[in-house]
Amino acid sequence: MKTEELLGIAAKATRKAHAPYSNYKVGAALLCADGKIFTGCNVENASYGLTNCAERTAVFTAIAEGRRDFVAMAVVADGDNMPYPCGACRQVLSEFCREEFSVYIAKASALTDYEVVCLAALLPQSFHLHK
Hints:
- This protein has helices at residues 3-14, 54-64, 87-96, 119-122, and strands spanning 26-32, 37-41, 70-77, 102-107, 115-118.
- By secondary structure, it is of the alpha+beta class.
- The protein has a single domain (3-122), classed as Cytidine Deaminase, domain 2 (3-Layer(aba) Sandwich), CATH 3.40.140.
C-alpha cells in the first residue's frame, strides 16, 4: 500500500472523531501485514482523562479482532502542528509493534507533506515487563 493511501484513510477517520472539547480531530490507520487496515479516531470525554486517542482506538480495535501483525500506522489531524502520538499511544504501540514499526504523520491540509518516524525514535528505551 502506498503511504499516501494510508494517510488518506487516516484523514477520513478524522471525520468520525468526537472532539467537542478540544476541536482537535485525529484519525489513525493501522496497517497489518496482509494489507488489512484498522482505523481509529479520538473520542473525547468530559472527564478528559477518559479520552481515547485515535492511535489507541485503532490498535485496540485490531487487538479485539485478534490481530497482532502490525506494519505501519498513519496519523492525521486538523491543525497547524504535526500530530505526533502522545506518550500513552507510544507506549501502547511499543507493546504490540517492533522498534522499526513506521509511523507516518501528516496534517489533514497537507497529506503529501508527511513525516515518517520509526517507533524506536518515538519512544527510545520503552518500558517492557517481558520481551
